[in-house]
User: Fold this.
Amino acid sequence: MLNRFAFGCAAVMTCLIFSSPALGQRNPASKANLFQSSLVQGVSACTAANTTLPGAEALPGCDPVVPADAVCNFTDKGFGRLKFKAKDDVKIQVKIKGLSAACNAEVLCVVADMRWTQDGCASGGSCTTEELDGLPLGASCCTVGEGNCRIKTSLVEAFNDQAIVVNGNRTEYALGSISIVRVGHFPDVTFRAGLMVP
Assistant:
């Protein structure tokens, strides 16, 4: 939407009126209702490089690889995936299979780095939250049984109807890192949204 701005009229000038995008105007995507990803093992950051990665850039790396969580990890046939799907609410689904035996009876939860922009703020317009790192997505947890973990919830359910989702108020959730953490082990990350090639 374009707003008209009138710039000052001086005695020696005529009024200049022109069309321009409004300051602070929101221009959301026409469609952004699905986020999905595979899960990869969380690993500790490399802080004291002792080798280089293959390739022309020879990026510094750490050997050996250190899993961020020594209790919960994938077995040879393990995998995981997650999906966020938005309509009037944001549905959250996580499926993890083939976890190590040591992970049985452990509780895994979804956390996300995110900020959101929402209509209907007290200012009368739209506003954006501060950056929220490692935000626990409420009740989005599961207890691992027989190497498997399933989470099926929504933001409204996970946050017990708090105002993270407000009916009729357009909201954009900008997602950073999305992770699965083990209760009692946070902030170390058990699994991260990611990809593997090939």
